[in-house]
Amino acid sequence: MLTAVLSGPLAAPATDGDACTIEAQLDGRQTVESARYRVAYRTQPERIVVGEHFALELTVCPHGRTPQPDTVRVDAQMPEHRHGMNYKATITSQGDGRYRAEGLLFHMPGRWVFIFDVRAAGQTDRVTASFQLE
Fold first, then answer.
1. Residue 38's domain is classified under what CATH number?
2. What is the pLDDT of residues 65-77, one digit of tens each?
3. Which range of residues forms the domain containing residue 113?
């Protein structure tokens, strides 16, 4: 499994103006949640083309008193074909819990699953989102 990893000190906790909810409502981001985190994301460009690199813009927000993540990982797989991507993405922090994963590429059409692993305080929360590429 090829994985992009971001480590090190991250942004301060989100305030009551929950950035994930606000961004999901304002710009069409998709939102997935675990017990401890909410991840809002969108692809750049919006339309993914087979064989062309794309990026993910994402926001990771902890629920309640959950700590900020120590690491964030992004990957994608095709469960029906039992393989992942052929490229390893890189993630950079954009501040305030926002990240950009670049260098993703889907090399064939079909159902892909984005995998977001958020690790903090010795625990990893995994959230997934299905994506159909025509």
1. 2.60.40.1930
2. 999 898 899 999 9
3. 4-133
Q: What share of the chain is helix, strand, coil (3-state, %, to 5)?
A: 5, 50, 40
Q: How far apart are the first and last CA of the chain?
A: 23
**Paired tokens of 59:** 């926001």
Q: How many domains does the chain have?
A: 1
- Bridge pairing between strands 4-7 and 71-78: antiparallel
pLDDT at 4 over 80: no
> Cα separations (Å) of 57 from 11, 80, 101?
15, 26, 7
For 51-97, write each residue's pLDDT tens digit.
999 999 999 999 999 998 988 999 999 999 999 999 888 999 888 88
pLDDT in tens, 99-134: 999 999 999 999 999 999 999 999 999 999 999 999
CA distance 80 to 9: 36
The residue type at 105: L
pTM score, whole prediction: 0.80
